[in-house]
């Protein structure tokens, strides 16, 4: 778990963590190295379908702590279009 306000830096920094890079590689491989929407094989991003926040601590889950079912491979273009069209839901969880 992490708290945006306490984190010196940003969420982006977490995406360089070895644990995320390993999880990211696993998801891209699972999705056959292509965007699940358009089939592109370039500029791939692993997208969180929803974010989770701990009910007691109010802290967000770390990017690599999500179950694989909440992650999907998208190309940069589909990822941007999705963020413009939809807001990613925040789910409160009890841990």
Automatic annotation (TrEMBL):
Keywords: Endonuclease, Hydrolase, Nuclease. GO terms for molecular function: endonuclease activity. This is HNH endonuclease.
């Amino acid at each position: 778990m992490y708290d945006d306000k306490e984190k010196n830096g940003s969420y982006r920094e977490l995406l360089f963590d070895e644990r995320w890079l390993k999880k990211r590689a696993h998801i891209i491989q699972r999705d056959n190295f292509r965007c699940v929407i358009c089939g592109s094989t370039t500029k791939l991003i692993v997208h969180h379908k929803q974010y989770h926040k701990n009910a007691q601590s109010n802290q967000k889950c770390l990017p690599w702590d999500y179950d694989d079912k909440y992650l999907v491979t998208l190309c940069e273009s589909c990822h941007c279009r999705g963020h413009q069209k939809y807001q990613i839901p925040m789910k409160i969880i009890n841990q």
